[in-house]
Amino acid sequence: QVQLVESGGALVQAGGSLRLSCTASGLNFNDVAMAWFRQAPGKEREGVSCINWNGANTYYATSVKGRFTISRDNAKNTLYLQMDNLLPEDTAVYYCAAGLRLGYNCLDTRGYPHWGQGTQVTVFS
Length: 125
Description:
Helix content: under 10%
Radius of gyration: 13 Å
Shape: globular
Strand content: over 45%
Distance between the termini: 40 Å
Number of helices: 0
Largest sheet: 7 strands, mixed
């Protein structure tokens, strides 16, 4: 079965950086679009960034544009999210998702059948 395992979450001071990783198994990683989502306490899960199968196309939520960078290494079946200049409002559980269905926006939670368990990012000021 498909497994997505996130790592890299931590407690970090505002202005700092983190790199999240998501390692995938059980799917043809090279063929699928991937994305990062996040969910803060009491809020709905929201799309952060997405990337197409070969990394040529990326998209970012307005709130993270210019601070976060999504990338992938298809040889390692791994998705990354480099997060710089972190803000307290970036505090959330971060999830990776795989396998965007046709007809869905790449930051729509409904578009992904496969999800990881999440990794906690906490930014303190």
